[in-house]
Design brief:
mainly alpha, two-stranded antiparallel ribbon
Length: 677
Amino acid sequence: MSEIKKFQPFIAPETNMKELTVKSILFGSLFGIIFGAATVYLALKAGLTVSASIPIAVIAITLGRKYLKTTILENNIIQTTGSAGESIAAGVVFTLPGFLFLSEPAYANYFNYFTILTLAIFGGILGTLMMIPLRRSLIVKEHGVLPYPEGTACASVLKAGEKGGDFSKTAFQGLGFAFVYALLQKIFHVIAETPAFMTKQTNRFFPSAKISGEITPEYMGVGYIIGPKIGGILVAGGVLSWFVLTPLLASLVPPDVIALQLVKLGYLGGLDKNGGPGGWDALTHSFNDFSVAIYRAYIRQIGAGAVAAGGFITLFKTIPTIISSFKGSIGSLKKDGGEVPAVLRTEKDLSIKIVGIGSVVLILLMTVLPQVPGDTVFSKLLLGILVIVFGAFFVTVSSRIVGLIGSSNNPISGMTIATLMGTCLVFIAVGWTGKVYEPMALVVGGMICIAAANAGATSQDLKTGYIVGATPKYQQIALFVGAIVSSLAIGATVQILDMPTHEMLAQGIHHAIGTDKYPAPQGTLMATLVKGILSFNLDWQFVLVGVAIAFVMELCGIKALSFAIGIYLPLSTTLPIFIGGAIRGIADWRKEAKGEKAEEDDLGKGNLFATGLVAGGAVAGVLVAMFSVSDYINAGLQKINLEHILSGILGDTGFFILGVLFFGLMGLTLYRVAMKK
């Protein structure tokens, strides 16, 4: 108890101040919807997310103080409620699209709004529920041991806002810049979306090597936030795929063999059918774009093997942390008897009874609700029990890990892979093998992924509350509200983005997710693992090549998971992210050369502007996807589409160069903002 007595929060426990109010919950829910939708869009396209707590806190400070007259504790509730959307969205997108890629096409029917909504709410509630008894042991007792970097930074933002400042001005400038850029790119088509330059298949020395980039604000912003090191590792994986493996396979593998592999994977109806990835021509037995055909036929499976191995390696390296965190948390619970009688306002948690009752209710709901896969009561009951058991373990693990290294470095994918493996092994032990059990295994993995992601964000929020002097009970209530409200929007956003365009429908494609538009790399990986363990129907030769590449990278001292994601994703995704990271590296180098301090991770002008780029670009992307659903709006948008006019004047190459110049202007703007003191 000495640590509790020593530490003095910003707002004293004895102070009575407005906190859990209607306006704080409403505005927190609004931000949860906005950032949840943005995270869905970004995660589906790039397989990456960024933290929402700090930008929400920055916006809350400005809007709250100026228009709503909110207190610092109300602003804390706003960011606490809103942050649930980002974490739950990440968990949903990283796993549940796997329903689309399982062995039977009928399993795609589980990828509907009500199933996504149910699993998102259950996973989000589970992550917060399991953190209730852990708060005292991890947040309070280990205050000096576990820094929880995002939570501490968010508390600094709230305290600085209370004292005065203009943090949000820079973030809003970034958001406005990104929104205008996105309108020019996605509505008026003045800026090319994906400039590409490729060598010909007939090139003797370097056939079908392709450089391309989706020059969007959100990718540049993400790159700046993650920095040059991770951005460099990501693009290095892309260079291996598109400038090493693709030209090599293009030189060695005949077009008919590539086409047969696409037929096997279900991308092409047959050698006598036109279409498919790369544009197969049945008459000439050739592809319009060999690089895309090779990517879909071979590279993605190699990338999936590398990502799986990278996840295992990450999990293996964190096993000591996992074991110590689990032992420490369980030991403190035994010592405290589950709940310490609270005297001060800042020590009041929700009752431990809620955890027990909530866990039982979750199991019962999973047993009876038709949205949850399973043929019998026993099978669905087993799913519920596995979710609670794995959830209790990995919520503890996730909270401890993010306390040390931050939410952005939380190995959620590794924990999800471990959950899927454990679930499949339990299924095999009770005689459940084959395709019929694939969606059931994915449900367990999906809920644990959502719970672990939300537990990490919940831990950061509780750390922020501990520093500023919030009431834990009110924060926990806000987190439950945020989980439910944001899940409503996350399910809708996923369904909107999954709607195919008219061109996709003409090609027989009924889901936009899983195409080049929204690759959903983690979801594809999870489905690949489930199918591989339960039915052993994989091209293991390609998967094992990816596994070997991951081990080579790890032996070279490079983070295998980041490199593997770069192999899996198109270079068009990782290249603009790398450019954003390079801008961060150059800005920091110039500052150090001038004798100035390099930018702080979360509070510098460059980071805030980059956060605005991510939010503005992603929200614009979601809005455009919503508009594209309507034929009437589509017809109107075609009338203001300037791409054909500009391409006619400049040519395709000139139009691409114009887009690159716009992207360069955005990069220069970000650099100039970052260099300001």
